[in-house]
Write a structure and sequence with these properties.
It is a single chain. This protein has 89 residues and is mainly α. The chain has helices spanning 10-13, 16-23, 46-52, 55-75; strands at 41-42, 83-84, 87-88. It has a three-stranded antiparallel beta sheet, with no helix packed on it.
C-alpha cells in the first residue's frame, strides 16, 4: 500500500494570522518578538523502541504523545513549528 503525503497547508507551517494574510493575497511583513521560547523534544531510545515494537504501536504512541503536546500548545496559544518522526518543535 502506497502512503501519499497530503499537501502542506499554510496553516500547517505558519501561525493562523500569517496564513490568513497569505491566503488573502496580502503582503506579510516580518515580525519580531521581545521574548521567544523554543521547546525541542526528542524521545530517548526511540530507535530501540521502534525496533522492538510493531510499527502501529510506535505510530499510536507518537500520535498520543503529540496530540497531548498539541492540546497544551493550543491551550496556551503556542505555535507548533514542526513534528518530524520522534522530534517535536
Amino acid at each position: 500500500e502506497n502512503l501519499k503525503r497530503k499537501p502542506t497547508s499554510l496553516y500547517d507551517v505558519f501561525p493562523k494570522h500569517i496564513a490568513d494574510a497569505l491566503n488573502a493575497g496580502k503582503k506579510v511583513e516580518a515580525e519580531s518578538h521581545e521574548v521567544v521560547t523554543i521547546v525541542f523534544s526528542d524521545i530517548v531510545g526511540f530507535t530501540t523502541i521502534s525496533e522492538q515494537f510493531p510499527p502501529m504501536k510506535v505510530s499510536n504512541m507518537l500520535d498520543r504523545l503529540y496530540q497531548a503536546f498539541d492540546t497544551i500548545a493550543d491551550r496556551h496559544g503556542v505555535f507548533k513549528v514542526e513534528t518530524i518522526g520522534d522530534a517535536y518543535m
